[in-house]
């Protein structure tokens, strides 16, 4: 085992948005910072590589954001998707602080662009990164390195030695050797456990082996498990996660945001028996897209199928994979492996329940609904009649898990009623402190940015 010279004040574990915000903030406070990133350099950045926007409170126009988005409206949106399962104090802290984050992000190299149209028309609530998450990650790495932050890639942390109420030593593997470092402060920002499919299966049951992992294959929960085993306080339900319905042709790992399907509001969704199972038009997509992963997970073989017609094809951002196309519904059913008679019956029943489509409006709740249909479709309900017909297969795509490290408003971790004096957490590894269930588009980046900055500030203050 090789001991690294005792030259670092802070070790930041992880290399995504939260880790970088912590490292930059600590370095600006005068701390000597080491980032330990498990991934190779081309894959640095964790799930942040795949993000595209940041949800931000603002009292007036701010950067690319128009009009205003108040704390109360933001919190109300969060309550809708979480069903009230949130820590209100920490949630409001994240929301309030987000307004200060956007100019901070710009000052540290992040560039923004106008919001996209269609189902991602979020010009008032979400700021979109120019170059996406990869652009943000690269900007932060340039800033961190200019501040003297040292980065070790392919540095997999295996153990944090918890001695009484502090982390005494960090053990990791790098360049084929086991090494140790003894920083004054430690920030854990290494994500959830979603890439460990065995752990997912223990939580969810065998169905989890059919899930796809949207993000990095390196978030396996090694550090999270190590700390929980040593008694660091946990938060969250292991079955709760940010799970969305993605293209069933996506790879097992790292397919990213381009595999997401935004077409559900303009479709009907059926299972392998060609039966609908939920209201596709319940709410605008940024507020409801994250429920569909769990809905699909509950279906036979954890698979669903989107059915649309020609008039809906251009209303949403397409997946990286083209849809399956057919001139008739029976032909489409054959191509998708669905029972043709059952699919035709489901579509006929849906079409008969649709009313006047003249009020159809694709970017807002339009009240164009079905009548006498179970489950209903409460918005955007137009008959599926115009050939050619199209379909996408859907599978559950897990972004990150909510079982994590419980933190306080200073991002500090605890053992029982005592703080761990030199341990802070930020990002997905502590997001369960705020997200009990559900998800709101762009809120993960809010949590990571807010608590990354808090963790960096507190860790530097302790080290100094």
From TrEMBL:
- The reply to whether Oxidoreductase figures as a keyword in the UniProt entry is yes
Record GO terms (molecular function):
oxidoreductase activity
Q: Does the keyword Flavoprotein apply?
A: yes
- Domain of life the protein comes from: Bacteria
Q: Which residues form a coiled coil?
A: none
Q: Which residues form the FAD-dependent oxidoreductase 2 FAD-binding domain?
A: 9-436
What cofactor(s) does the depicted protein rely on? FAD
UniProt KW keywords? FAD, Flavoprotein, Oxidoreductase
**InterPro entries reported for this sequence:** CobZ, FAD-dep_OxRdtase_2_FAD-bd, FAD-oxidoreductase_2, FAD/NAD-bd_sf, Succ_DH/fumarate_Rdtase_cat_sf
Kindly give the NCBIfam families that the UniProt entry links to this protein. CobZ_N-term (TIGR02485), PRK08274.1 (NF006130)
Q: What is this protein called?
A: Tricarballylate dehydrogenase
């Amino acid at each position: 085992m090789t001991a690294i010279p005792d030259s670092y004040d802070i070790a930041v574990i992880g290399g995504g948005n939260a880790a970088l915000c912590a490292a930059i903030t600590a370095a600006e406070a005068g701390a000597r910072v080491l980032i330990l990133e498990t991934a190779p350099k081309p894959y640095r950045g964790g799930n942040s590589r795949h993000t595209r926007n940041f949800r931000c409170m603002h009292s007036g126009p701010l950067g690319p954001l128009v009009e205003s988005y108040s704390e109360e409206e933001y919190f109300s949106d969060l309550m809708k998707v979480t069903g009230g399962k949130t820590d209100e104090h920490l949630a409001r802290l994240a929301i309030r602080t987000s307004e200060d984050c956007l100019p901070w992000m710009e000052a540290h190299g992040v560039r923004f662009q106008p919001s996209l149209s269609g189902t991602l028309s979020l010009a008032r609530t979400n700021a979109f990164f120019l170059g996406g998450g990869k652009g943000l990650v690269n900007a932060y790495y340039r800033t961190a390195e200019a501040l003297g932050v040292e980065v070790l890639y392919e540095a997999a942390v295996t153990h944090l030695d918890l001695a009484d109420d502090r982390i005494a030593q960090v053990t990791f593997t790098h360049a084929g050797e086991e090494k140790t470092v003894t920083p004054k402060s430690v920030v854990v920002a290494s994500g959830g456990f979603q890439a460990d499919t065995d752990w997912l299966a223990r939580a969810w049951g065998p169905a989890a082996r059919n899930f796809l992992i949207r993000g990095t294959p390196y978030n396996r929960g090694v550090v999270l498990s190590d700390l929980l085993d040593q008694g660091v306080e946990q938060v969250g339900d292991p079955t709760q996660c940010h799970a969305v319905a993605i293209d069933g042709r996506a790879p097992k790992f790292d397919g990213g945001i381009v595999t997401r399907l935004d077409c559900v509001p303009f479709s009907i969704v059926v299972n392998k028996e060609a039966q609908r199972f939920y209201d596709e038009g319940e709410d605008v997509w940024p507020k409801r897209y994250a429920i569909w992963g769990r809905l699909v997970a509950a279906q036979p073989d954890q698979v669903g199928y989107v059915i649309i017609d020609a008039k809906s094809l251009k209303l949403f951002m397409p997946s990286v994979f083209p849809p399956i196309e057919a001139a008739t519904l029976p032909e489409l059913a054959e191509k998708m492996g669905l029972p043709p008679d059952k699919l035709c019956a489901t579509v006929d029943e849906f079409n008969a329940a649709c009313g006047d489509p003249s009020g159809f409006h694709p970017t807002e709740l339009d009240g164009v609904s079905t009548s006498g249909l179970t489950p209903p479709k409460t918005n955007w309900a137009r008959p599926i009649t115009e050939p050619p017909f199209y379909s996408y297969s859907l599978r559950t795509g897990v972004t990150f898990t909510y079982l994590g490290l419980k933190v306080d408003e200073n991002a500090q971790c605890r053992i029982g009623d005592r703080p761990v004096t030199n341990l802070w957490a930020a990002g997905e590894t502590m997001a369960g402190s705020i997200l009990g269930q559900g998800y709101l588009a762009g809120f993960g980046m809010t949590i990571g940015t807010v608590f990354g900055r808090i963790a960096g500030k507190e860790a530097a203050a302790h080290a100094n």
